[in-house]
Amino acid sequence: MIYTCGHTTPDSDSICSAISLAYLLNKIGREATPARQGDVNPETQFILDRFGFEAPELKTEFAGEEIYITDYSDKGQAPADIEEATIVGIVDHHKLGDLTTSTPLECWIRPVGCTNTIVKEMYDYHGVEIPANIAGIMLCAILSDTVIFKSPTCTKIDTKIVRELAKIAGIEDFKALGMEMFKVKSAVEGVPVRELILRDYKPFDMHGSAVGIGQLEVIDVSIFDNIKEELKVDLEALRVENGLHTACLLLTDIMKEGSEVLVASEDTSIFEKAFDTKLEEGSVWLNKCLSRKKQVIPFLEPAFA
Ligand code: MG
Ligand code: MG
Ligand code: MG
User: Which of 147, 137, 196, 163 has the alpha carbon at shortest distance from 9?
Assistant: First the structure.
């Protein structure tokens, strides 16, 4: 039995790719079950409800199990006991991480906007038909990861595959569905600040320095005006509690197409050098910055070298 499972603090791509990949594996004669390493966020819950899926099984221990990893390849985002599991495959669209294996594995890693885009190519490769409800969740994951095609990570392959999936799922106006999803994502009122910081949070090892980067993608960043000070204070508290060198929170405005980045750091000059900018009261607006993987990490990581 193979567990298909995405990264810690799962996002919609991690959950939906675990489901879509498990269905494919079963169809080609490899018994598989989807799993998740953490709570389902509100956007993902909206997607699951919309297409009639239950959340995958919550599972954090994989010792002795076979696991097919989706949507990451960094050890920091893997289960703690990953070294005692057998990684049978990786399907991902991030930079190559630091996971290694002791047996040969199947790798589907490509620079596209979403893991579900690659899973769709796997279905085509194996000649397996995609059920309408699975096409629906795959489509939503791609719209989420590519910020409805606005992210610089979005490729022609992603847009082509979204159109194909929309046809299969019977969705006429997929952009309207995408906006509905981002409206759900933008409902932050009354949510504790720590929960917001950790909602889409990833830990990284940058040349020996521990760095954490969270991101909130909303339709209008002014919704954070009232809680920005509280977010800054808690970001620094999180940094100290977790022994991080630097903790960042991207407040991304998908309509203005940029991000305000809140930075808590042992040495803020590293961030300032990375982005050739000056922080003011611990934050800075980065125009056109929508993607953590393509517009933040590739600049921040070398600054720690
Ligand atoms: Mg992800
Ligand atoms: Mg992804
Ligand atoms: Mg994302």
Answer: 196
Q: What letter would DSSP give residue 37? A: S
Q: How far is the CA of 142 from the centre of ligand 3 (A)?
A: 10
How many other C-beta atoms are found inside a 10 Å radius of the C-beta of residue 300?
22
- Give the span between the Cα atoms of 217 and 50, in whole angstroms: 20
Contact of 92 with 69, CB cutoff 8 Å: yes
Q: Which of 169, 179, 171, 164 is nearest to 46 (CA)?
A: 179
Ligand (nearest to CA of 113): 2
pTM of this structure? 0.93
Q: How far is the CA of 30 from the centre of ligand 2 (A)?
A: 23
Rounded to the nearest angstrom, the distance between the alpha carbon of 125 and the centre of ligand 1 is 23
147 contacts: CB under 8 Å, gap ≥ 6: 154, 182, 217, 252, 254, 290
pLDDT in tens, 158-187: 999 999 999 999 999 999 999 999 999 999
112 Cα–ligand 1 center, Å? 13
Sign (positive or negative) of CA dihedral 283, 221, 253, 19: positive
Judged against a pLDDT cut of 90, whether residue 189 lies above it is answered with no
